[in-house]
Amino acid sequence: MAKKKKIKHFFDYSLLFTVIFIAGFGLIVMYSASGYSAQTTMQDAMYFLKRQALFAALGIVVMLVVSRFDYHLCARFGFIFYAISFLMQVAVAVIGLASHGSARWLKIGGVTFQPSELMKVAVIIQLSIIITHNGYKMNEWKKMLTTAAWGIFPAVLIAKTNLSTAMIIVGITFFMLWISCKRVAPFAVAAGITMLVYVFAYPFAKMLQRLNILQEYQLIRIFAWKDPSSYADETFQTLQGLYAIGSGGIFGKGLGESVQKFLMPEAQNDMIFTIICEELGLFGAVSIILIYAFIIYRLYDNTRNARDLFGSMLTIGIMCHIALQIIFNIAVATNTIPNTGVTLPFVSYGGTSLFILMAEMGIALSVSRQIRLET
Amino acid sequence: MQTKLAITFGVIMLALIALIVVIYQLVRNNSEEYNKIVLSQRQASYSSRTIPFRRGDIMDRNGTVLATSQKVYNLIIDPRVIHSGDGERYVEPTIKALSEYFGYDEGEIRTLLTEKADKSYVKYAKELNYDQKVGFETYIKDKNAAFLKSGVKSRIRGIWFEDEYKRTYPYGSLACNIIGFANADGSNGTGGVEQYYNDTLVGVNGREYGYMDSDTKLQSVLKQPTDGENIVTSINTNIQVALEKYLNEWQTEDIGSKVAAAVVMDPNTGEVLAMGSTNQYDLNNPRALDESVYTEAYLMELGRKEAVGVYKREHPEDPAISPDEAGKFFSQSDILSYGKQVAWNQMWRNVMVSDTYEPGSTAKSITLAGALEEKAITPDTEFNCEGFIELSDGVHTWKIRCHNHDGDGIINAEAGLMRSCNVYLMDTAFALGADKFVKYQHLFGFGEKTGIDLPAEADTSKLVYAPDKLGKTTLATNSFGQNYNVTMIQMAAAYCSIINGGNYYKPHVVKQIVNSNGTVVENIKPEVTRVTCSKSTSEFLKEALYQTVEAGTGTKAKIQGYRVGGKTGTAEKIPRSAKNYLVSFVGFAPVEDPQLLVYVIVDTPNLEGEAQATASFAINIEKKIMNDALQFMNIAPSSETDPADNLNARFANNQEGISSDAMGEQATSASGDETAGEETETLDSGEAETVNETLPPVTDEYVEPAEEGDGFGLPDAVPDEEEDT
């Protein structure tokens, strides 16, 4: 009788600890970047730190709890979650219309949050469900397009108020479809078009301006991106960010020594990467990018070894989400792409964003838990 | 799928590597340049972010604002920023904006931009108001938005506004000696409350900065300015307006004098309700000199005199220079500026607090109070006035005369005061003795500082005699207010104590300090510093002073409907031979419960010799002020008042109540008529030609013209000759 193989369950501790590490690192940098504005606006230098730390702690607990659950539960509640997120998104759009602005926030039970953050997770789960369900049928055009619609449709809804999140949702959809089907050509074409738009963004934006499609503020961001010094008033943040990166040098001014954080509005938010560059220099920037790269690598590895397709797809979605957000954020900070409001995962200030990211990591860890190690 | 997954991972990694390359290039290519920009930005934000404090307001007792600070905005042009655009694309739009919105001269701005191209801070326009600032900012925003929309790269840039506070005095010269004025940045005051309470009025500048200290701890960052505290004075603006109006009437429409001044006090608290002199200046423009008085030649003359003093201070060893030689050592412009400084100080001088003079007969009440307290005399003590007292100090023989050369006869204390009999007072002082006389002088505040909360109070400690220096002759003249010096505020405060039952209140002009939120920080309570006399003495003197107005030298001070008390004063000035006089009157009402004390002096009326010595000049001013003040304070009359005195009737004709009117003229002409041909009071030794046979009553105190006589009236000396301290 063959000796029964003992099934050993894997748990991706390296991912867990890297995430905890980067969340802790994020708190330190966030405190340095936000202390000044917290002191001036809230009379408490620790204001943002305290809030963020609370969310980080909660997030870690939630991550550990979620990692204990079977990720297949996602399949059962995926659609309900998707529907709720979608309705909230509609609600935000309606409120936005009513208040003449581009509302992004929703307040429920005293907690303000962006439904678009939830939408990203909902799209990841929902796409994973459908792709798993379709299986090989994903190679059919019809199936592919209907699946894509699940991601594209909410993205269009969000684009009006929050172009960057819409782009991330589209990006996630793109990569999940690309991996799930055998076709190459349509994706290559789509990627090619994206590159063209990127290269010819300026004339393209001019055209859009004439067609009156994008919002004024979004257009100005594109113009300002190509020619920052002409739009010194409009690109104040971007320019200051570039000065911060440039003045940081190789090893930076030292933790807490940033000068630019006094000038930059909301340095603790989207532009926090520039403060990291200024304080820790190129060395620090590369280090943190390597840490992110390791997280992405761990997710990639888990994807390859996931027990089933559903687990793989979930992990792919999460990986793409985090990767896109990191790339977009750093690209904005370096003025490689127009200014969009994308946060740096685990580091930028923002309670709900951090909380949801942690929950996502919980799902990824849950997937990793079911990887079977053969010994 | 695995391949595609690998490709995805690869793409992500490539993107991250690409970003690292981008960052590397940013750091490599721009590190130095960006560092400079960052430092200069920090410098700029560090040095230019002083947030000015607001100097506290000064209000009258009813909250009327007498001095306030308004926020104004300076337009700052930053030529460096304006020239910073590629192809000078900020220059033209900015120039155009300035000329279009403010109507500034384009050419002028253009030259300024070329000449000061490397400057970052050019104050181009001052004291713009809030609407102008906000209007222009909106204009810039709109224009720039339009440029952006039309795709033009022109922008309006390099213009910003700097906050500043401008001190304004809504009433111009009103109460200038009490208020004083503040310098441009509101950090200092000259004269009055602005100077004395400067520490209260100033706040602390705020500052916006941020830096790490040596422990890399974040230092506090935005320091909000602390605004100065507001001051509520005891001034009653209505009374102050009336006071200045009547002084100016006297000065410009009547005989006029070298200077005339008046103080109105609340005898029960020591609060100054109004105070002013004919020395007035515009607080909004304190350095403007009246060119008809201060001609260039006069200024040069003043300047040369001052230059002598300056030379002496700078070269203590060298022999002194004469004013004519000043030109050799100082430049014309230096001398002129010295002259201006002297002129300003003359103009700003607070006569009521800083100037001293011999008080004359108003001091008799104090002599009597002392004698009554010490029981040297009783109200019934009688002395015989034969018209003079002859005194000898062994060298000189002085024959000190009474007003009435034939003598007032045998009179008691009340009559002595009513008739302002010098002989009675001299006898009283002899009975009291020098030691006790001096004690009471000090008790009533003569030779002491009153401690009033105004700057530059005269030091009179050397202007009264020490007991051992007070000989019989000087004791005699001191008894009726000659040969020692007082300030107006001393005399007013002393009288307050006499009529309020003997409590000497420290005179003060500030009632309350309120912080910028309106919360009371400090209430300045009336402070009794000592008791000068007993209730009974106070009662006796009140009655005697009332009789003085009813049937004595002060009858012109009567106001129908009120019981007014008071005392005249006619002091002969030093040098006696010049025959210059300072006449005064101190009045109070209502006698039964004194609420107001008005003290007026008229220094050297513009008349020749003894004609100056007419106390009714002062009485007339006092009466008008008292009449108005009684009504402003809503003090109920004890009987029917004269409708002609009613303020409301006058206000119906003239809301401001400033220009002259029927009432004013009537009162003014009265003073002219009644001087002649009544009872006389002679301080002077000159032989009076005519002495009226009928003794009582006396209705005024004035000096009959006299020829240069053989006798002496008063010794030509006070303890310290120097009057200005």
Summarize it.
The complex is a heterodimer of chains A (375) and B (725). With 375 residues, chain A is mostly helical.
Can you offer a commentary on this structure?
- The complex is a heterodimer of chains A (375) and B (725).
- The mean pLDDT of chain A is 85.
- With 375 residues, chain A is an all-alpha fold.
- Chain A has a two-stranded antiparallel sheet with strand order 1-4. Chain A has a two-stranded antiparallel ribbon with strand order 2-3.
- Chain A has helices at residues 13-42, 47-68, 73-98, 115-134, 141-159, 163-180, 185-199, 201-211, 216-226, 236-248, 272-305, 309-333, 351-369, and strands spanning 8-9, 106-108, 111-113, 372-373.
- With 725 residues, chain B is an alpha+beta fold.
- Among the domains of chain B are: 1-47; 79-157, no CATH class; 237-280 and 353-673, 3-Layer(aba) Sandwich (Beta-lactamase), CATH 3.40.710.
- In chain B, the strands form eight sheets. In chain B, strands 2, 3, 4, 5, 10, 20 and 21 form a seven-stranded mixed sheet that branches.
- In chain B, α14 (364-373) packs antiparallel against α20 (535-551), α16 crosses α18 (472-479) and α21 (616-632) packs antiparallel against α23.
- The N and C termini of chain B lie far apart (104 Å).
- The CATH architecture of the domain at 237-280 and 353-673 in chain B can be named as 3-Layer(aba) Sandwich
Share in β-strands of chain A:
under 5%
The major sheet of chain A is characterized as: 2 strands, antiparallel
Structural class from helices and strands of chain A?
A: mainly alpha
Radius of gyration of chain B: 35 Å
**Whole-number tally of structural domains of chain A:** 1
Rg result of chain A: 21 Å
Structural class of chain B, please? alpha+beta
The CATH top-level class label of the domain at 237-280 and 353-673 in chain B? Alpha Beta
Q: Please report the total strand number of chain B as a whole number.
A: 25
